[in-house]
Input
Amino acid sequence: MAEFCSECWNDYYCKEYTDEKFILTKHETLCEGCGEYRRVVFATVEKRWQQKIWYIYLPLKRIYRLLRPFLQIFGFPYRLIKYRKELIEIIKNNKR
Output
């Protein structure tokens, strides 16, 4: 993984983040952008609303995965009737 200081990270990703948006390493390491020993970017701090969305999205996704087979089973008769009606119309149109 590439290690960039905050300035090189902004240049590489074309962003205008300040140092408050980054979690920097404790010790100075070699920046791969400028070649100097600096504190490099360990991670970026995401917005709080993005973090809160994950607490809502992930449980809903898991519930959907659990319920999906049941939804498919209960929706099968409807799809079968719909397909049958379309098939009958196609047959009628072909006989004319």
User: Anything to note?
Assistant: The first helix runs from residue 6 to 13.
